[in-house]
Amino acid sequence: MQAHTPTPAKTPTLNVLRIDASARRDGSVTRRLADGLVHELGRRVDGLSIVHRDLAQGLPFVDAGWVAANLTDPAQRHDEQRRALAFSDALVEEVRAADVLVIATPVYNFGVPAALKAWIDQIARARLTFRYTEHGPEGLLTGRKAYVLVATGGTAVGGGMDFATPWLRFVLGFLGITDVEVIAADRGMTRGEDARLAAEEQLVRLLDRQWPTMAEAA
Ligand SMILES: Cc1cc2nc3c(=O)[nH]c(=O)nc-3n(C[C@H](O)[C@H](O)[C@H](O)COP(=O)(O)O)c2cc1C
């Protein structure tokens, strides 16, 4: 029998991947919501590590070389094919390393911004982030939580014209991320500041439930 050795005290670390999809950096409602969420998490979690992927910097669309490389057995890929997938591999690693995803996205033309669609296209990789089994598709990015922070001008989130949040929920679930919270500052054109303030309040209430502050937990 092994002697019992006490487990050393560990600082719990929470790895957060923040993804911003708004084209704007100034005046962005979704970026402000994401700032608030990260700040609130920092108050609640001892040891927060944040990786920021700002999609406004641009990212490539998948192309023919990418598709062919992805379909090739990894052991058989030549250098050019490995290069074609290198950025996608890096994005997948960012998701894999994360415990929590913060996805801040506007609704553009009733869906997600093209940059966010391009990001999903880059991380949805057969055999890497999902696979097909005899029981159907299986997502391989399980065990992560996602917060989707969304803003709109006139579209009601959850309504018939919102193709963004149902699609995001679906595709994240397809990849195995089923624990998804959507917080909406929607219809900003008519609700003005109230839309964001209400979303921020909703966010704090949610975090109070999910991540009681360290002082409360002690
Ligand atoms: C290209 C573009 C398309 C948009 N399409 C919609 C839309 O379909 N429905 C809607 O309610 N608002 C739409 N809006 C408004 C944005 O969703 C809204 O301004 C939101 O606050 C933008 O997010 P941000 O503040 O983080 O930049 C659109 C804005 C832009 C720039």
Cα Rg: 19 Å
Bound small-molecule species: flavin mononucleotide
> How many DSSP H or I helices?
8
**CATH topology-level name:** Rossmann fold
Number of domains: 1
Uncertain stretches: none
Protein architecture, described:
- There is one protein chain.
- This protein is α/β, with parallel strands linked by helices and about 220 residues long.
- It has a single domain, classed as 3-Layer(aba) Sandwich (Rossmann fold), CATH 3.40.50.360.
- The chain has eight helices and seven strands, in the order βαβααβαβββαβααα.
- A five-stranded parallel β-sheet has the order 2-1-3-6-7, sandwiched between helices. Strands 4-5 form a two-stranded antiparallel sheet.
- β1, α1 (about 30-45) and β2 (about 50-55) form a beta-alpha-beta unit.
- It is globular, with a radius of gyration of 19 Å.
- The mean pLDDT is about 95.
- The site of flavin mononucleotide has 17 residues, from α1.
- Flavin mononucleotide binds near residues 108 and 110.
What attributes does this structure have?
single chain; 218 residues; alpha/beta; Rossmann fold; 5-stranded parallel sheet; two-stranded antiparallel ribbon; 8 helices; 7 strands; 41% helix; globular; binds flavin mononucleotide
Give the topology.
Blueprint: E1 14-20, H1 29-44, E2 48-54, H2 64-71, H3 79-96, E3 100-106, H4 114-123, E4 130-133, E5 136-139, E6 145-151, H5 164-174, E7 179-185, H6 188-191, H7 193-210, H8 214-217
Parallel strand pairs: 1-2, 1-3, 3-6, 6-7
Antiparallel strand pairs: 4-5
This protein binds flavin mononucleotide (FMN).
